[in-house]
Here is the input.
Amino acid sequence: MIKHIDLKYNKEKLIKEFDSTKKKFHRPSKEKGKSWFSEQKSWKTITLEGQCEETERIRLELEEIFNVPVTAKFFKLEKGEGIPPHVDHGHRAALNIILSDDPAPIKYRGEEEEFYQCAILNVAKRHEVLPGSERKMIKFQLGRLFFDDAIQLYSQKKTSY
Here is the structure.
């Protein structure tokens, strides 16, 4: 469900870019009825469109690696909050970079909780974020790629350098 990777990035620049953006409460586009997602006030996001230099550099590198359109988003989850079990809509795999020093773990149904800093995740499988410290994260949505295909493409590209 999670493939830890060693992507090269400048964490200090990413944190500055993250802190410089104004995020809004996350509201899913395909939510049916009232739920935690439609009413929460602890999870904020912004979709980036080229305004952050280091984030854009990574996004373009990922488009080259995966050969799909990649969407970059910042997410911030307040301290002590978690995200209930869910699947992401509109994409099946994501490459996430955690910018927080002490991030909360992610948990998939039937699996142990897992901590990561930079990883490709299967977001089409039911998962949750457990409560913990403040969570600052960059999410690169990998178009319609499946998790296994994303891992294979990343491994092929990284070994060809």
The longest helix spans residues 53-66. The beta strands are 2-4, 24-25, 43-48, 71-77, 83-86, 93-98, 106-108, 118-122, 127-129, 135-141. Residues 2-159 form a domain with the Jelly Rolls fold (CATH 2.60.120.620). The chain has one domain: 2-159.
